[in-house]
Amino acid sequence: MVNSLKKSVVFVLLAAVAAWAAPAAPPQDAKTLLSNASKAMGSDNLKTIQYSGTGTEFAYGQAYNPDSPWPPFADKSYTRTINYETPAWRVDRVLDEVPPDRRGGGLPPGPTQNVVVGANTPWATQVDLWMTPYGFLREAMKSDVTVSSKSMGGKKYSVATFIAPNKAKFNGYFDAQNMLDRVETWIDDPMLGDLLIEANYSGYRDFGGVQFPAKIVLKRGGYPVLDLTVTDVKPNAPASIQANGGAPQNPPTTSMKLADGVFAILPAYASLAVDFKDYIVMIEGPQSDERASAIIAEAKKDIPNKPIKYVVNTHNHFDHSGGLRAFVAEGATIITYQGNKGYFEKIFSLPHTLNPDRQSTARKKISIETMGDKKVLTDGNREIDLYRSQGSNHNYGLIMAYLPKEKILVEADGFNPPAQANAPPPAVINPNNTNLLENINRLNLDVETIIPIHYPPDGRKVTMAELMRAVHKGS
Q1: Is the peptide bond prior to 87 cis by the omega test (within 30 degrees of 0)?
Q2: Architecture of domain 30-235
Q3: Does the model's pTM come out above 0.85?
Q4: Which among 140, 106, 120 is positioned nearest to 28, based on CA atoms?
């Protein structure tokens, strides 16, 4: 029995050594992997595809507070038509009714969206096409691809990787059946820096010889931007797609003097520059590093030889915060609602290697001052009163700024005026307009001029009378 036991031990040890010494099965080479996947998914002769379903789209960067996901818009129907040859795509959608108590920002997506990829189409726009299952296969087959093995969620994948035009990795995860379960890459984002974007595909079914996922979930910043249940797919459907028109040109940055030492910096996303005794206070650092840099330059022309000490952030939505890093690089302190401090500190530490901005070079220490319901900025002569809007469904920390001597109110998304001053009042009152008026009345503010961050294109002075007309309280 002892000899038998010894033989068993030796056998086990030899087997273990053999297993240890045997090389792991190598992953498929790139050409074989992509060829097998193309055949399995029915992509070899696929030039166009149209898929339809129902689901939810989400307004990226428009969360009600830093701990919330992007706010939703429900799609009664969603149809996307893709021409991989052009390349181009069109989305046709019918939205469900938006609940009046919906929390968060973002405009509902339009009924139709057309994109034709051309020489000047930004990668951040066209990348959406190459993240589709068949778009990824096409782009990978033109690229220098490496293949590795990875386990994720209890499944083993062959991961095809190539380098995208923006120098970021582009990864596609193929399962044992050669179906593409996940695509991921990184793009530059003014707020989140090197931003992971991901597409998750599941429930592949046969549609006319093409395997297509019944479930599509696209994510940015860790939260979904599209959650779609696919009900119909038409391979090689007619797909003549025309561009909606050229991208609007950004007009030059200009200033409008509102009072001594007070300047509205226009167009589009406005900012306010206010002259204090030894420094400048800015209200809003919107959109991007480029836009904020133009605002900073204009403010210094209006108010020369003074540093920008403060930039007031009306709220944390990305279109209103995307330029804050440029102000940090300038040495300014951010004033924001108290609930945003930890969030800003976290995201401002994220790397911006794909498109380095001013702060990537300056590496200034981030300075943030917070406020609750009210904060007063004064030098003994000039005064700005900052108030948190109560009852806003747009954002939990929405701040408006009031200059009592000048009777000027700066507000974001409470009232976005129409393009023309004499436009007829809306048939349905916007609840954000009502909420703004309620806060003005609650605080007993004597307002003559309103500076909406979303400034009307004609550059006019917006008066309190326009807000009253919008809420059906004026002529």
Answers
A1: yes
A2: Clam (2.50)
A3: yes
A4: 140
